[in-house]
Design a protein that fits this description.
Length: 184
């Protein structure tokens, strides 16, 4: 991309973060539910959908919630490097984000998140008596009060942005505010 200017590059970084931020508040935004890829405890790849809960451009951080007993938590505690992959048909944009994640199971961040989740229909997900992925047992009820909400903060290391377009695809690697154009 020889004909791009520094302002195109700043705009791209800004637009990406603005779409990420919008996805946290717009239920219909396609970037609301990225795929999170981790390294399994057996060293093999693992991937699943999560909901993006916060996107902070200044801190270069993405946030999702999970059940502290879910397998991904131990995976991230063992191997914090992970990837989030977003696709939006509307934008024709794919975003692959390399992150280093930190799992929070208590403290102010979790308390604030629980305040928010406990008012929503999702509250029951974090009150279930049985751990996600454990063998299903009939009759195991929720135990009100004892939630298992964990907040995962993911520091963005770099972004790989791909735009599909009829008149030519574009791809860029973004580290902070620097943009390197790549062959798509
Ligand atoms: C649309 C959608 C959104 C989801 N959002 C979350 C989420 O925000 N957090 C989460 O832990 N699991 C979420 N899940 C469930 C996960 O994809 C996964 O099945 C579950 O967390 C167990 O993953 P694990 O065994 O890798 O820990 C979502 C699933 C779907 C289909």
């Amino acid at each position: 991309m020889n004909n791009t200017t520094p302002s195109d590059e700043a705009n791209l970084v800004q637009r990406i973060w603005s779409e990420l931020q919008r996805a946290t508040v717009d239920r219909h935004h396609e970037w609301r539910s990225p795929v999170l890829a981790t390294t399994g405890l057996d060293g093999l790849p693992q991937a699943r959908t999560v909901v993006l809960r916060a996107a902070d451009a200044t801190a270069s951080q993405l946030v999702f919630f999970t059940d502290s007993r879910s397998p991904k938590v131990e995976e991230l505690q063992t191997a914090p490097a992970a990837a989030l992959v977003f696709w939006s048909k509307r934008l024709s944009w794919q975003l692959r984000v390399r992150v280093v994640s930190q799992v929070h199971t208590d403290g102010a961040l979790v308390d604030a998140a629980w305040q928010r989740v406990s008012q929503s229909a999702a509250a029951g997900d974090y009150l279930a008596a049985q751990a996600p992925g454990s063998a299903w047992r009939a009759g195991a009820d929720a135990s009100p009060g004892a939630h298992h909400l964990a907040v995962v903060t993911s520091r963005v290391e770099h972004l790989d942005w791909l735009e599909l377009a009829r008149d030519g695809h574009r791809r860029a690697r973004l580290v902070g505010s620097s943009v390197e154009w790549l062959v798509p």
